[in-house]
Design goal:
It is a single chain. This protein has 152 residues and is mainly alpha-helical. The protein has one domain (2-141). The chain has helices at 2-20, 26-33, 46-65, 87-103, 107-113, 119-137.
């Protein structure tokens, strides 16, 4: 139960941070990504400060976490084992970046932005869920009968 409570509180804190920093505002994100606007002054660099702050907090958090023998609410740390940069990773990064640049949303801010009830946000999240479902329908990614995902 503590694990669920802590995860919920972390999610609320993350969503609040996205809201306060205006990362749930696609216009703000697109103004940040418009590097062509540097010359005419329409580029908005303020989200760079948000990202730097996030990196500082994340770095400190990892440093503190890895001083422990084990996590607080579970038996062991769950870290990725695949460190390979391959075609699938690069293709996913390009798709993610293109989507973010086209509409000003990525999954976290879009989900946090649902609370505002904007139609564009609802459509984006619905499309994201459909895309995730389509991915899971691909034979190599279907869950097995044990409930674990197939090859990822």
């Amino acid at each position: 139960m503590a694990q669920v409570l802590i995860a919920g509180l972390a999610g609320l804190l993350f969503g609040a941070g996205l809201t306060v920093s205006q990362m749930i505002n696609p216009a703000k994100v697109l103004a940040f990504l418009d590097f062509g606007g540097i010359a005419d002054g329409s580029w908005d660099p303020s989200l760079a400060l948000v990202m730097v702050g996030a990196l500082v907090v994340t770095t400190a958090g990892y440093a503190l976490a890895f001083r422990r023998r084990r996590p607080v609410c579970t038996a062991e740390f769950s870290l990725p084992t695949n460190r390979r940069v391959d075609r699938r990773l690069l293709a996913g990064a390009v798709l993610f970046g293109a989507g973010w640049g086209l509409v000003g949303y990525c999954p976290g801010p879009a989900i946090a932005g649902l609370g505002l009830g904007a139609t564009k946000t609802i459509v984006f999240v619905a499309a994201m869920v459909v895309g995730m479902g389509a991915y899971r329908l691909m034979p190599e990614h279907r869950p097995s009968w044990t409930g674990t995902a197939g090859k990822a």
